[in-house]
Specification:
172 residues; mainly alpha; 88% helix
Length: 172
């Protein structure tokens, strides 16, 4: 049984023939009541404080749990973001490589086309040179033949003149 200050105050002692001095007992009981009342109130205050602290501890524990969960979610989200960023980087890299290969393939086709055209032009140039040389040789031969014919004509005319001069006597 828990004693309260009121229990102490209401306690009555039986008197005996040789009993204690009533005034001293009453004075001492009064001091006990005051001390006990102080301790009792302090105990009630401490219990209230304890209950409040327990509530605060509970609240802080819940906050701690929420913070832990939030940190775990943030860590998981960061891991997910990192994984997605790596996947996206790989995708971009793969697309860039494919684009580079496509461009290189196109450039190689262009180079092959240019090489074919160059070889074709070289062949055309050679054919043109051969035709031009043949043309010039033919023109040169024609010119030489024309010159020879003209010289031949000159000699033939001189011969004819000389023959005519020989055939016609002088009338003098």
């Amino acid at each position: 049984m828990t004693l309260t200050p009121l229990d102490i105050q209401n306690k009555e002692f039986r008197k005996s023939f040789w009993g204690y001095n009533e005034a001293e007992v009453d004075a001492f009981l009064e001091k006990i009541i005051e001390s006990f009342e102080e301790i009792y109130k302090e105990n009630i205050d401490l219990k209230e404080d304890l209950a409040q602290y327990k509530n605060e501890i509970e609240r802080y524990e819940k906050m701690e749990e929420n913070i832990k969960e939030t940190m775990m979610l943030a860590r998981n989200a960061a891991d997910e973001v990192r994984k997605n960023a790596q996947k996206e980087a790989e995708l971009i890299k793969r697309e860039a490589q494919n684009e580079a290969e496509r461009i290189l393939s196109g450039l190689q086709e262009d180079i092959n086309d240019l090489q074919r055209k160059y070889e074709e032009l070289k062949g055309q140039e050679h054919a043109y040179r051969v035709r031009m040389k043949s043309f010039l040789v033919a023109q040169l031969e024609l010119l030489e033949n024309t010159l020879r014919e003209e010289e031949s004509k000159k000699y033939v005319e001189k011969d004819k003149e000389n023959n005519d001069n020989l055939a016609v006597p002088n009338a003098t």
